[in-house]
Design goal:
Elements: H1 15-19, H2 22-37, H3 51-64, H4 70-75, H5 80-84, H6 91-106, H7 112-128
Helix pairs in contact: 2-3, 2-6, 6-7
């Protein structure tokens, strides 16, 4: 067989595919929420039952990074700023959220390029959510 006849596996096209799909985002969110559960700044902003938020965040992140549109099918347009307006998010809350999400991400085995993309997104989005 010549080199021209060899078939190469296509590189996964989306970040979602390259990091491992839903399983990656579910685990990322679980790790993130472990930090939230004990954070004195963030925990008061979350409801008693954290499970629905975990499901929503994992679905949102999976969709954002190229996965199935489950989040939008169930909850409509993400409207991140609007959904977060009821919660006072200042510099301390922004920094705590970003720190925990980046810590969760760094504890995962994401490829370095994808981890860099996600880190930049989390930093930028955390800043965008500030409303105080």
């Amino acid at each position: 067989m010549s080199q021209n006849d060899q078939v190469f596996a296509a590189e996964p096209l989306t970040v979602y595919e390259r990091v491992g799909g839903d399983e990656f985002f579910v685990e990322l969110v679980e790790r993130f929420y472990e930090f939230v559960e004990t954070d004195l700044v963030l925990r008061p902003l979350y409801p008693q039952n954290l499970e629905p938020g975990k499901v929503h965040l994992a679905a949102f992140l999976a969709q954002y990074w190229g996965g199935p549109p489950q989040y939008s099918l169930e909850r409509g347009h993400p409207r991140l700023r609007q959904r977060h307006m009821p919660f006072p998010i200042g510099q301390a809350e922004r920094d705590a959220w970003a720190t925990h999400m980046l810590s969760a991400l760094s504890s995962m085995n994401a490829p370095s390029n994808e981890a860099a993309l996600m880190s930049e997104y989390f930093e930028r989005t955390a800043t965008l959510m500030m409303n105080h």
